[in-house]
Structure to design on (724 residues):
């Protein structure tokens, strides 16, 4: 249904109905959500709470009791925590990817396995890069093979110590890095009650597996270096046991459904805990064996065996990512296609971006540390795998920026034609005075439609990431970037050095931008409204792949909302749930948790909702049309969804109802949910006003008379259901 008529105001009678508003990613203050100067908190805490206006302002313009749920601080919390979570971005992306699995049972299980193995590989790479700084740079180069610049040539007085002692002591730095990750991933306290997803036992199992794998990789790095000078019985046994630990960790993740199967949970929990304890014990034995080994160590520029371990970690990423992409594309080729944002491809796309960032972060950590310490002077630079990782990130990131610009220009004409068709139908008669405003409205619609091209952009960028990761194959042929450039193009090695420096600088800029972005997302509503959706989307989903990903805030927000709705329904005649943007997602999941006696007193109003435009396409196995219809059935189809063509995030849920579309099926209740709002509702200013109506886009618009009309309609349905 298209509501494009000029708004009018009408005041309804006072009813005993609560209008519960839930904001989107902007994280607005409760005063702004409710449109009142004075509010008070009636439930919850500082991170997430329920607020009501004070005194005579407690009711809205239609006589409903106003209340707001503010959850904006749940994903981030303090500024310090927001900054720290930036380093967890690759882990967060790998965790989101597992929730993007296709709908097919077999392909979905395969995607879950590959995403969890990729997540384990990210932990391995994190430890390998930490070991690169602590063991290869500090312990081996700076204190031995190639003394670094002062004062790093005498780190903590270890320069005179035996090599094994230096390696054993500085191996405590990667161990501390793993402990730091575990600390960042610790779940924040949440209210008592049933969680949304009972995943904490799964997180515990994953955590034990990842910690065990981290210790095993660190041990293998130390033992490989020691074995290069000749193996002993102890090093051989420790190498075999640590390799077995790594295989067991991979095996626990590689068996489809093993971690999630109810009958095997106790057995898997015990196995994960056991392998974790064994890994810690083996690490203690490895450190002791390396420190006490008095034999001579081999002579080399870098830590023996370290480059091979880093290469196999990066090569494992590529292999798993190619397998994941192949599986997802195979499923997509057999499933329904969608040109706007392909359903089912999200797992491969997001995993590729996460893996690309992880490889770039790990390589740049080693590169920048070596540049700071002066540990790579005269020996060809950092390990070859990291050189390829930095160069590939620089090349595909540069190509991605160029692609984004090209896609913006190439799609402009097509987007403009589609937008012009919409505004021409909305405003068939335009006076010369309104021509400029018509162009502004058309431009706003055209900009909003760029979101429909983001799927193609993301898929192409992911393909570039896969190509970049494939460069690690060149390491198998002992080809460094400088050698390849010299052989193919005849360029000097300085060209590669310049590319490495530019790539490393680009990665550092990305990290700095993420750090600043985390701060601005916490402090600035404008920035959070435009960028915060990415972070809120990532931290919305529970940890089902990577245990060090940020904790899910939905595990608190959704049960808290459901409990509050239940309380309000028992005290009042009805509860009208009003959810903007991501708030509509939280409310939809809360509705699915409500008991039957409460659903009869609940109605749902969503606006700027990404339920179909983003979530149903990105997460087809969990938020699809079947689930959305279930939400409608739970509230007796007392559901209206308001959307605008100028909104780049939200949209229709069941039917577009655009001008010229065929009329919906009157027998289908879902076809009556969506209502398109013409935006702007007029091109010229009303007689009593000086300025024309503004383009609203993704703004909430609770004061819009068309919004208030929807509130009155749903309130009336609640009263009819209640017999009032």
């Amino acid at each position: 249904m298209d509501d494009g008529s000029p708004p009018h105001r009408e005041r309804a009678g006072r009813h005993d109905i609560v209008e519960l508003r839930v904001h989107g990613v902007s994280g607005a203050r409760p005063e702004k959500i409710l449109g009142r100067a004075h509010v008070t908190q009636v439930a919850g805490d500082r991170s997430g709470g329920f607020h009501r206006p004070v005194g005579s302002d407690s009711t809205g313009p239609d006589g409903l009791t106003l209340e707001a749920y503010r959850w904006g601080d749940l994903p981030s919390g303090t500024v310090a925590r927001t900054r720290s979570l930036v380093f967890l971005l690759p882990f967060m992306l790998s965790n989101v990817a597992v929730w993007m699995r296709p709908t097919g049972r077999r392909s979905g299980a395969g995607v879950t396995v590959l995403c969890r193995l990729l997540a384990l590989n990210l932990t391995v790479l994190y430890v390998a890069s930490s070991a690169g700084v602590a063991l290869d740079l500090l312990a081996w180069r700076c204190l031995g093979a190639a003394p670094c610049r002062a004062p790093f040539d005498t780190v903590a007085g270890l320069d005179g110590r035996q090599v094994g002692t230096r390696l054993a002591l500085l191996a405590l730095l990667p161990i501390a890095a793993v402990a730091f990750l575990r600390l960042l991933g610790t779940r924040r306290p949440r209210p008592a009650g049933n969680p949304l997803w009972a995943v904490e036992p799964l997180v515990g199992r994953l955590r034990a597996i990842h910690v065990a794998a981290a210790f095993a990789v660190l041990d293998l790095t130390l033992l490989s270096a020691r074995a290069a000078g000749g193996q002993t019985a102890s090093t051989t046994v420790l190498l075999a046991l640590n390799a077995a630990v790594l295989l067991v960790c991979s095996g626990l993740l590689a068996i489809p459904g093993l971690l999630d199967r109810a009958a095997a949970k106790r057995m898997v929990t015990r196995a994960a805990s056991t392998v974790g304890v064994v890994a810690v014990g083996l690490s203690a034995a490895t450190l002791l064996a390396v420190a006490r080994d008095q034999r001579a160590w081999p002579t080399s520029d870098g830590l023996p065996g370290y480059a091979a371990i880093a290469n196999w970690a990066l090569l494992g990423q590529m292999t798993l990512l190619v397998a994941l992409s192949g599986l997802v594309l195979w499923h997509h080729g057999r499933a329904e296609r969608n040109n706007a944002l392909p359903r089912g491809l999200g797992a491969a796309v997001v995993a590729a971006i996460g893996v690309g960032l992880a490889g770039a972060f790990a390589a740049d950590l080693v590169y920048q540390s070596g540049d700071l310490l002066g540990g790579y002077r005269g020996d060809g630079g950092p390990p070859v795998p990291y050189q390829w990782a930095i160069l590939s990130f620089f090349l595909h990131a540069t190509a991605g920026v160029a692609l984004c610009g090209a896609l913006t220009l190439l799609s402009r004409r097509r987007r403009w034609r589609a937008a012009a068709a919409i505004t021409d139908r909305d405003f068939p008669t335009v006076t010369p005075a309104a021509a400029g405003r018509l162009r502004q409205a058309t431009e706003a619609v055209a900009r909003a439609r760029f979101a429909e091209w983001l799927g193609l952009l993301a898929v192409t960028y992911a393909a570039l990431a896969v190509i970049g990761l494939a460069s690690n194959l060149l390491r198998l042929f002992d080809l460094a970037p400088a050698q390849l450039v010299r052989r193919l193009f005849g360029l000097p090695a300085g060209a590669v050095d310049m590319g490495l420096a530019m790539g490393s600088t680009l990665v550092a800029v990305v990290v700095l931008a993420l750090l600043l972005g985390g701060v601005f997302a916490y402090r600035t509503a404008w920035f959070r409204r435009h960028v915060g959706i990415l972070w809120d989307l990532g931290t919305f989903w529970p940890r089902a792949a990577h245990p060090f990903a940020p904790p899910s805030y939905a595990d608190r927000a959704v049960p808290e909302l459901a409990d509050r709705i239940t309380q309000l329904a028992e005290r009042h005649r009805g509860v009208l749930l009003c959810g903007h943007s991501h708030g509509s997602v939280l409310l939809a999941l809360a509705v699915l948790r409500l008991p039957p006696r409460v659903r009869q007193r609940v109605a749902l109003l969503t606006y700027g909702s990404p339920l179909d435009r983003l979530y149903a396409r990105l997460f087809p196995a969990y938020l699809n049309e079947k689930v959305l219809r279930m939400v409608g059935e739970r509230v007796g189809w007392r559901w209206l969804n308001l959307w605008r063509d100028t909104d780049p995030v939200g949209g229709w849920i069941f039917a577009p109802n655009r001008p010229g579309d065929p009329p919906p099926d009157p027998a289908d209740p879902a076809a009556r949910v969506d209502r398109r709002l013409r935006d702007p509702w007029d091109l010229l200013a009303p007689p009593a006003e000086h300025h024309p109506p503004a383009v609203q886009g993704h703004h909430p618009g609770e004061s819009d008379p068309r919004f208030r009309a929807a509130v009155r309609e749903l309130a009336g349905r609640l009263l009819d259901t209640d017999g009032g």
